[in-house]
């Protein structure tokens, strides 16, 4: 991985790490890389609600137009909608401007191929070389060869119809609370659920770029829990800033994570004869309890590195139709090419309706193994593998947990953090070993 791209595109503090100048250069480089031999190629671009979105969108599309690409603006819309629309509109590339679950001051740029998939490392590395080249020698057409910008006014309708047709069904009698996180789901999620017949209570459903993810959405579900209990709803469904992930709260106010949603969905698909291969793909972060639950259903769990892109690549190799992450990125590959929070929420509500079971009962199909995750601030996270003291602490813990649990220590791909995760039967022991490793990392790399 190079210096610009992380595990989910380019991300950083808007107007500092991710400046309009960088977005302009990226627009030129990416447009040239994907469209250099095509006359007036098309690029789809969308964004979430955060305040820096206008600035970065304008800079990126200016760069793309300067190469001769025509830009199709789809406005404030979820990341999975950009992936879908890139395919539907026969574009050569898709672009989403969002920092997902990150704080307001951050932003990011994700790139999609013409097939709607996030880019492999080799494509990102080549684009990065063009961006960071000491001299810009890319084409500069003039006159009628310049690109133009066109708003796509039916973009929301297209995505809405797609979700309803692909995973929807009657939701009459289902009452849901939707936490839209002041983000990209603010209008579409309530609309889709209402059109499918559900009774909807919408929270944080304004396009407020100054409050995106603030004490709301999938990163903070306390308010959602209170509303669920007060309103007697069937489920609470929370999205992140760009709505490519979904987490839930059951009717009793208990948190339902991505591993549980994956397990519920996999069982439903298998019983419906729509699972395809008896395989589910998830990351090394997924709980051992999910693996045990899937095994009892005759479904094999395949683990990958962290990042939904890695999950999707393995799904394609295995022919798997479902995969995802504990964080709520759920990929239904038959219906879309990336994690889709709204589609996941609709499918979960449909399972509630068709099974006639409450969410707490459905979620009980998986029992969590105790798991502890600590995020350690690390200014020098790139030195993790080189530090002998950290390596020794990790080795000691791995020996301690051998045959009883797991340890995972990895740098975040999007933030200046190192994540320390341990899993095992004894919570007190987990606290001790994770605390010890976190302390060493903070001392050596903080």
Mind explaining what this structure looks like?
The chain is of the alpha/beta class and 446 residues long. Helix content is 38%, strand content 21%. It is built from 14 helices and 19 strands. It has a 7-stranded mixed beta sheet with strand order 1-2-6-5-3-4-7, sandwiched between helices. Strands 9-8-10-11-12 form a 5-stranded mixed beta sheet, with helices on both faces. The longest helix is centred in the last third of the chain and has 19 residues, at 427-445. It starts with a strand and ends with a helix. The relative contact order is 0.11.
Helix content: 25-40%
Largest sheet properties: 7 strands, mixed
Radius of gyration: 22 Å
Category by helix and strand content: alpha/beta
The shape is globular
Tell me the β content.
Answer: 15-25%
Strand order of the largest sheet: 1-2-6-5-3-4-7
